[in-house]
Write a structure and sequence with these properties.
Structural class of chain B: mainly beta
Structural class of chain A: mainly beta
Largest sheet of chain B: 7 strands, mixed
Number of strands of chain B: 11
Number of helices of chain B: 0
Helix content of chain B: under 10%
Strand content of chain A: over 45%
Order of helices and strands of chain A: EEEEEEEEEEEE
Number of strands of chain A: 12
Order of helices and strands of chain B: EEEEEEEEEEE
Largest interface: A-B, 22 and 22 residues
Helix content of chain A: under 10%
Shape of chain A: globular
Distance between the termini of chain A: 41 Å
Number of helices of chain A: 0
Oligomer: heterodimer
Radius of gyration of chain A: 13 Å
Shape of chain B: globular
């Protein structure tokens, strides 16, 4: 069965500094992986997805993630944090590119200090 | 496109009352999902539909919960009778055929007193 572990429940960074949100996954099959973002009182929005093409995936708002099979990781990064990045981020795994039963991580709350 | 539309955005009710949550998916999307989000359990898939047909309802907590999709543009999630432990944010999401991306509504926040 597939699962994801987000290694930090909270991350705090200063505006303009790099962001790293960590995610490890477990999957019986070649996984599809996603990062979603949720701003307060809003629905979730897709940031980026990996579906067995390039291992470095670029998403919206300057975020990117690297798929590392040997480490079973899919960490989310951004070179320079902006105040508007403050939100909760979810790492998600599906066992097929169009798999329907997505499994969500517990979420990482990103705080950006001015 | 207006996106996935959910109503009501907020609902406060008393234990034992019936609650109906509504969802209008994005036009042309073949799949519709209902999720529940709580602090304790995170995001849980309750049920999903493909072309208006329920495919997997194994996440529905118990018989008090039911979901319908009478046509491609409307779905309901009903709780009868409601209990305080049902308090959560309920999200509807839709997805076009052939992609993995879900498009979420803004959620319905339910409080059962």
């Amino acid at each position: 069965a597939q699962s994801v572990t987000q290694l930090d429940s909270h991350v705090s960074v200063s505006e303009g500094t790099p962001v790293l949100l960590r995610c490890n996954y477990s999957s019986s099959y070649s996984p599809s992986l996603f990062w979603y973002v949720q701003h307060p009182n809003k629905g979730l929005q897709l940031l980026l997805k990996y579906t067995s093409a390039a291992t470095l995936v670029k998403g919206i708002n300057g975020f990117e993630a690297e798929f590392k099979k040997s480490e079973t990781s899919f960490h989310l990064t951004k070179p320079s944090a902006h105040m508007s990045d403050a939100a909760e981020y979810f790492c998600v795994v599906s066992d097929q590119p169009t798999g329907n039963k997505l499994v969500f991580g517990a979420g990482t709350i990103l705080r950006v200090k001015s | 496109d207006a996106g996935v539309i959910q109503s009501p955005r907020h609902e406060v009710t008393e234990m034992g009352q019936e609650v109906t949550l509504r969802c209008k998916p994005i036009s042309g999307h073949d799949y519709l999902f209902w999720y529940r989000q709580t602090m304790m359990r995170g995001l849980e898939l309750l049920i999903y539909f493909n072309n208006n047909v329920p495919i997997d309802d194994s996440g529905m907590p118990e018989d008090r919960f039911s979901a319908k999709m009478p046509n491609a543009s409307f779905s309901t999630l009903k709780i009868q009778p409601s209990e305080p432990r049902d308090s959560a944010v309920y999200f509807c999401a839709s997805r076009p055929r052939g992609t993995g991306e879900l498009f979420f509504g803004e959620g319905s926040r339910l409080t059962v007193l």
